[in-house]
Amino acid sequence: MSETLTIEAGFSHRGGMERQDTEQRGTEERRDSARAALLAGYQTVRQLTELLAETLSPEDQQLQSMPDASPTKWHRAHVTWFFETFILQAHKSGYCVFDEHFNYLFNSYYEAVGARHPRPERGLLSRPTAATVTQYRHYVDTAMTDLLDCADDATLATLAPLVALGLAHEQQHQELLLTDIKHAFSRHPFAPAYLPSQSFTREEPARLGFVDFEGGIAEIGHDGHGFAFDNEGPRHRVLLHPFRLATRPVTCGEYLEFMADGGYARPEFWLSDGWAMLQREGWQAPLYWSQEPHRENWQIFTLMGRRAVDPAEPVCHVSFYEAAAYAAWAGKRLPTEAEWEHAAVSGRAEHMGGFLDRQHPHPRPLLDGGDATLRGYGEVWEWTRSGYEPYPGFKPAAGAIGEYNGKFMVGQIVLRGGSCATPHGHIRPSYRNFFPPAARWQFSGIRLAEDL
């Protein structure tokens, strides 16, 4: 009897050890998988930035065509500075910065980090060269890879959200890299192309329909699953009145009708500030549109060069003022951001947008998909009628990272949806983009709404 018990006890002990070994192996595998995924995500995003810049010469990368834009070289360095400043210096023992001057040159707006070079003068920075910025990126990438490879569980758990923030930040600058170089090239007398010119086939635009929503109590804001910026929360309830939302963004052809009907000469459609801006700037069409003397057709400058306006593609590069004026002319209005987000998660929306396509960074025409589905997210950012304000209960993070979004919550308008220059996987229904109402150099467009 005792022998049997001894054998059973021994078997039980071995089983417990085997379970412990299995659990330990499982834990190690999960940790290794998480580490590999973090490294793969880091490398993918960092490589895309270089791919976007590879068609540009060092001289191209130096250009700054207006204070709101930045040189390509500066974008590449700034996103690298972000990893160096907020991750490597804080978490990698013995880390030595690449160049002590870079904290001044490539800090964007983080007052807590120190003084910075004036934004309107970034184009004057002939040094460091584009080649030195490439060396800087390699230096930081090597250090980041080493840090993530060697991090223990606790450190990896601390680093993961910071790396995610850094990558999302770099994806924002990938979009800015494209919009900023587009603006710079548009100012050149010969309108050079970022990519080779492409032929395009004129398509019939999708029919414009509207989708009805009953309204009521809805929840908006990030649900806590996966990455989000701090301005996407807290999740909260809103009251929505019954409304309708257009099935697709406004096309160039429809906007041409607004122009032909004197849209830029009729103050009854314009907000007061918008009308003053129109008169001061001489707006007569969206940014990058031009009409040569003695020619009827409008031309548009794209990242693939100048060509005729395609009536079927979504209109873009319009300000909030132009979007609101068009909506008033059409007898509609712009949606609120709460309406937009509620519609996006309603089950009646399809992205069906391009998002970033390195071979064709320009909005594509939307094919007809019927009147019951919301389509086109990912072709142009869509202006809303909502000011960029903090959600109820919003609190910025402590320290310099807290400056990322919160301090800009005044004088800006929210845009939703993403554009043809927005990297894949970067956009969520809760994502809140924001720009001043007069901004036009982003791929910003129009989706109409109305009350029921």
Number of strands: 12
CATH homology group of the largest domain:
paralog of FGE (formylglycine-generating enzyme)
Mean pLDDT across the residues is 90
Stretches with pLDDT under 50, minimum 5 residues: 1-13
- Corresponding CATH architecture of the largest domain: Alpha-Beta Complex
**Which CATH class of the largest domain is shown?**
Alpha Beta
Percentage of β-strand residues: 5-15%
Number of domains: 2
**Ends apart, CA distance between termini:** 83 Å
What is the global morphology?
globular
| Rg from Cα | 25 Å
What is the string of helix and strand elements?
HHHHHEEEEHHEEEHHEEEEE
* Structural class by SSE content: alpha+beta
Give a written overview of the molecule:
Strand 5 and strand 6 (299-302) form a beta hairpin. The chain has helices spanning 2-53, 72-91, 102-105, 130-150, 153-186, 252-260, 272-281, 320-329, 337-344; strands spanning 210-213, 216-220, 236-240, 243-246, 289-290, 299-302, 305-308, 381-387, 413-416, 433-435, 444-445, 449-451. It starts with a helix and ends with a strand. It has two domains: 19-186; 210-451, Alpha-Beta Complex (paralog of FGE (formylglycine-generating enzyme)). The protein is built from nine helices and twelve strands. It is globular, with a radius of gyration of 25 Å. It has a four-stranded mixed β-sheet. A three-stranded antiparallel β-sheet has the order 1-4-12, covered by helices on one side. Strands 5-6-7 form a three-stranded antiparallel β-sheet, with no helix packed on it. Helices cover 37% and strands 10% of the residues. The relative contact order is 0.13. The chain has 452 residues and is of the alpha+beta class.
